[in-house]
Amino acid sequence: MATIFSKIAAGEIPSYKVAEDDKHYAFLDINPVAPGHVLVIPRKEESYIFNLSEDEYAALTAFARRVAKALERAIPCKRIGVAVIGLEVPHTHIHLIPLNSEKDMDFSHKLTLPADEMQAIAARIAAEFTKE
Ligand code: AMP
Q: Could you tell me the pTM of the whole model?
């Protein structure tokens, strides 16, 4: 059975898309820990990031790096934080989080932003990604 993130990457479940290529997809986390919190996934269904092949892992992190560069231009911040958890959704994903303080990576404190704000954030990141 397809994972929820596969369905998102296939466009079967809506998401706030920020970037994609033939093997990867990036979209806003629906409950961000900070505004601009992005998830980067491989289209391939693999639950655990370290079970990807070396090539798949390298391609995923290279794509995530490109998304992070767009993210830091779209959402001014001190750094982009990176996390891999995967305890909730069994489909590899890298969290990219705009950081201004350590507290911005507190996964026990999640936000719910209005849809128009999520849409505007995604559009800003997507616009920066296409400027590369
Ligand atoms: P984890 O698997 O522990 O890394 O957490 C999964 C993350 O996916 C959480 O931060 C959720 O808020 C996020 N998430 C779950 N479902 C969706 C969805 N449909 N769209 C966007 N983000 C989601």
A: 0.98
